[in-house]
Amino acid sequence: MKKLYRCMGLPLAMLLLFTSMALAQNRTVTGLITDENGTGMPGVNVIVKGTSNGTTTDSDGKYSIGVPEGTATLVVSFIGYATQEVDVGSRTAIDVKMASDVKQLNEVVVTALGIERNTKALQSSVTQISGDNFTQAREVNMANGLAGRVAGVNVTKIASGPAGSSRIVIRGAKSLNTQAGAMNQPLYVIDGIPMDNTNYGQAGVWGGGDQGDGTSSISPDDIQSMTVLKGASAAALYGSRAAQGVILITTKKGTARKGVGIEFNSNFVFDKIYNLTDWQHSYGSGAYTGVGSLANRVATKASNPEDVQSAFDNGWYDQAWGPKMDGSTVYHFDGKAHPYSYQGDQWDKFYRTGTSFTNSLAFTGGSETQNFRFSMANLNSKSVMPNSGFDRVNLSLASNSKFGKKLTLTTKIMYSNEKAKNRPNVSDSPGNAIQSVYYINNDYNIDEYRGDPNKPGAVWTGGPTPLDGKGNGQELQGSSNLWGQNPYWAAYQFKNTDTRDRILASGQLRYDITNFLYAQVKGGMDWSTKRGSQLTPEGTGYQLPGALTEYEARAREINLEYIVGFNKTFGKFNINAFGGGNKMTSEYEKSDLAGNGFNTPFLASISNAASKTFNYDYRKQGINSLFGSAEISFQNYLFLTATARKDWFSVLNYPHNNKFYPSIGASFVFSDAFAGLPQWLSFGKIRASWGRVGNAFSVVPYSTNLQYTTGLTHLSRPLGYYSSANTTNNGNLPNPDLVPYISTETEFGMDVRFFESRLGIDLTYYSQKTTEDILNAPISRASGFGTTSVNLGELTNKGIELLITGQPLRGAVTWDISLNFAKNNSKIVSLIPGTNILNVEEPRTRTVFVSQIVGQPFGTLTGVKQKVSPDGQLIYDKDGAPLTDNNYYVLGKGVPDFTGGLNNSFTYKQFNLAFLIDFKSGGKIYSGTNVRMTEAGFHKQTLQGRDGEAPLTINGVTEVTDASGAVTGYEPINRALAPGEAQNYWSQLGERAQDHFVYDASFIKLRQVTLGYNLPRTLLSKTPFQTASLSFVARNLAILYKNAENIDPESSYTSTNAQGLDYFGMPPTRTYGFNLRVSF
Predict the structure, then answer these.
(1) Topology of the domain comprising 108-112+120-271+356-425+492-859+894-928+1003-1042+1046-1079
(2) Is the dihedral angle over the CA atoms 971, 973, 978, 982 positive or is it negative?
(3) I need a surface site. Which of 216, 454, 592, 776 has the fewest CB within 10 A?
(4) Where does the record place the TonB-dependent receptor plug domain (predicted)?
């Protein structure tokens, strides 16, 4: 906040400057400004064009302004209404009726390279979203606000807390490549300048943390609109960077007005854990013990003090296999007697109520020739995870200057500072407090793990004697399992903090040579520096010496672009064409210093590390491009558009270092072409297009030539480009002929509207194909390498998108509704010759994979099932546990078949209500969380088979084997398992039959609700405010439908291609609060 306040000096100075400006005036013009209903509008800006001379209307909508003698034009503007220009002439009284700006917004959209185009001319599906959708019910990462809003756009909020990243996939995944630059996420472009959206680290099979992405640095208050270019033809002008689609972000700019306009927005929301678990709370800590067969074993708890050490050593305290809780005495790892009864919800005791507080302030002012917008915003987000949060400060300055009638200079600079405190670790155990909370037993109070009041989670003098011999200051653990961490130790003693400073800047100079010919140059940069520290504290059970890594990563991208454009009408034809070029340079530099163990106990600093390892990585690449576009239209209803781009790549070897990316498309507005159509048809257009795009960043710099590395990196660190000492190209034989993959797409669409546009239908079909995808093919070890990269992968995506819009009610009550729906079918066509399967990722259980399989959809889940006999009967061992078929079977796919959203908004007088429902269907999710909770006896299904509960009956066969172990036959087994056998069954099920834990990932969610009140202008007339509104806002209020047990169906712990895996990610949260917006 201090940074924010210090920055207020400049806008305040501007305020004083602009409000003191005045120009000589020779005569007075008066009038009345009204809305569409004829009601006077207070606070409307009225300015003499080309000057800073202006005024605002009074409470009745009346104004009075001095204008110079001679020719003069009044510019009348107000938020939400179309700006009007009125010639004064000799008049002294001028009334103006304002019109809503919706029509204008619907007719013009921003397309590739920031070019504005009429929607009639668009030959492919393009969706534009107002920035207001991101500033009321907010997400810390604004990209998550796209969920459910755009057909064909699949948004996944990663289960890693408010500072986490977002995964957005447009029309299905286009690449099988696992390089960071090929993770199937779109290119983001801000005001015409590409933005780096790199994710610096993700959790994997052994755990880890989500280090965030580039979109988390953007303030939603600066967004004017967001445009999604979904098809290849729409994005083809971005060539080798557009394979996954493009999201264009247009930021707010200055406007001409009297004095300085000020807009203030304050948003405060609460985050509450949305607990979806339904575990058993009848049985507590303990295990099945006894001599002989499993059938003879009985549920046992630590009933006496002398049982404590044995219970600790054998892991009784983090397993719920004890007897039924009856209020008797049990001894915990602290050696004290406790009641053997349910101690309540541990989540309520551990997690806190999170908060996010955002304040933004913007100043706009100037004339028609010189104007500006300066804004500042501050976000303070406190996570539901103790000792974790995220802060962000944003500053931006935009200016627009006209020099005469021909030369225009536009500049924009945006600065952000992000501070993430203790990003939570997810997936496997190391530092994952989330997993630790799951394992707190029913008869325990989580406060028993709090330990030292001054060092949460640590052994201390006033606490219990540790059963594993640890000393003061080390981790207090409740089990001999070294990886079974204390949740307070993980939350308070592990450190995973980082800061990032970022500057996004651009400037554009345009010269209008004639009224139909122009030239412009544009330059932009995206510079960021990230510094972080990751600490495994000394005294941690699995790593007593501790470890510390400190790192710094710098990323820089510079783009220089030039364009010459032509737009002229020849009779019934119009030609709109431009050509130009771009030069992109990208650099990445990272250094880290890792220390293991500390010389001085409990002094966690690199200088105190007992051993140190330094690592350094530097990468640079560039792309030079030429591009062009030509649009020919006939009578404004028939449009033909062609584009072309050619890129030359520094990372590739000659003659393979260039690619050509063309597109062609046409649109026909038949409602304008034909007379005599029914009056109920308001608008009708058909369109078709074809395009080719690619992905330059699928080829890592220097990977096509031989290189050596000598430094050691730490595989547990999320930032490293991992290699081993004295290796060559990480064991991958360089392929000098490697090229970026190609994505081609054909699209057909129709846009029709009926009954004065009260009903609209937009339907799209697309067919996309990726060729020459980069895969690592195994080669003979005799070569000195294990793999080589080849252009052999091929996959397809085919789908439909539907958008239905309607306005059932107009008048005193207005009801707007939109439904978007998309279906995508993907298919892996080919991999490496002789290979039909490529395993991408696995969870910690290590018996399920996310795989790419020829003939199957992208992201197939494969895993083991229970073994069956030749006649289809389930096979069990002699104790009744399932036997595993060691073959891997398709269990589903981790991406949905269908996505969509339903958006409703109502207005009545000054009130407005809006809600968004989004849904996904057809995907699967493998839940490692449910596997582990079943093994440990917490899952409700484990009640079956216990004493006094419903029996667990198996019906199948056991194998009959000979002396060599060969199966010679089968014997039937049909009986209820004894409690000890039932415990063994549930403990083995997750490892031996993974299909039991693959769930339908379909859901319907109430994603967003806003209820607002706009103060009437009559109430504001005697105040300095032009507008004021107060809203109740909420996000993720309810899951209306789901089938996945105990988890959020969206609970993916990574934003990589390994979707459909759940394993102890951050629980979902409900967000609700208030939003205040005023302008004056």
Answers:
(1) Maltoporin; Chain A (2.40.170)
(2) positive
(3) 454
(4) 121-246
Domain borders along the chain are 2-100, 108-112+120-271+356-425+492-859+894-928+1003-1042+1046-1079, 866-890+940-1002
How much is the pLDDT for 4? 39
- The conformational region for residue 954 under phi > 0 = left, psi -120 to 50 = alpha, else beta, is beta
Q: What is the pLDDT of residue 729?
A: 64
CA distance 831 to 828: 8
Q: What is the DSSP letter of 81?
A: B
Neighbours of 673 (CB within 10 A): 15
Token pair for residue 894? 């981790």
Look at residue 715 in the predicted model and tell me its pLDDT: 36
3-state helix, strand, coil in the chain (%, to 5): 15, 50, 40
CA 852 to chain centre: 23
According to the model, what pLDDT value does residue 639 have? 97
Distance, in Å, from the CA atom of 27 to the CA atom of 72, rounded to the nearest integer, reads: 11
Pick the closest to residue 1068 from 275, 487, 436 (CA basis).
275
CA distances from 347 to 272, 275, 343, 351, 1070 (A): 11, 8, 11, 6, 15
Distance CA 806, CA 944 (A): 51
- How far from 851 is each of 174, 207, 740, 929, CA to CA, in Å? 15, 19, 22, 20
Under 8 Å CB-to-CB from 328, ≥6 apart: which residues? 303, 339, 340
Residue 618 has a CB neighbour count (10 Å cut-off) of: 12
Nearest Cα to Cα of residue 194 among 148, 239, 232, 241: 241
Q: Which residues of the chain have pLDDT under 70?
A: 1-26, 52, 59, 79-80, 100-106, 179-182, 707-730, 780
CB 621 within 8 A of CB 647: no
| Equal fold, 2-100 vs 108-112+120-271+356-425+492-859+894-928+1003-1042+1046-1079 | no
Phi, then psi, of 564 in degrees rounded to 5: -120, 125
Indicate the SS3 state at residue 754. strand
The answer to whether 1066 and 159 have CB atoms below 8 angstroms apart is yes
832/788 Cα distance (integer angstroms): 11
Q: Please state which CATH class domain 2-100 belongs to.
A: mainly beta
Contacts of 241 (CB under 8 A, 6+ apart): 187, 194, 623, 694, 695, 696, 697
C-alpha R_g of the chain: 32
By residue count, the chain amounts to 1080
Q: What is the distance between the terminal CA atoms of the chain, rounded to a whole angstrom?
A: 23
**pLDDT of 760:** 95
Measured in degrees and rounded to the nearest 5, phi and psi for residue 903 equal -115, 125
Distance between CA atoms of 1014 and 82, rounded to whole angstroms? 20
Buried b (16+ CB within 10 A) or exposed e, 388-406: bbbbbbbbbbbbbbbeeee
Distance CA 35, CA 48 (A): 21
Tokens 């000195």 appear where? 784
**Nearest 5°: CA angle at 443, between 439 and 448?**
70
The alpha carbon of 416 is separated from its chain's Cα centroid by a whole number of angstroms, namely 18
Q: C-alpha distances in angstroms, 1070 versus 273, 283, 358, 420, 1010?
A: 6, 30, 17, 21, 14
CA 504 to centroid of chain Cα atoms:
20
Q: Strand 911-921 to strand 898-908: parallel, antiparallel, or no bridges (unpaired)?
A: antiparallel
988 DSSP assignment: H
Assigned token pair, 555: 């990323």
Residue 212 Ramachandran class (φ > 0 left, ψ -120 to 50 alpha, else beta): left
pTM of this structure: 0.88
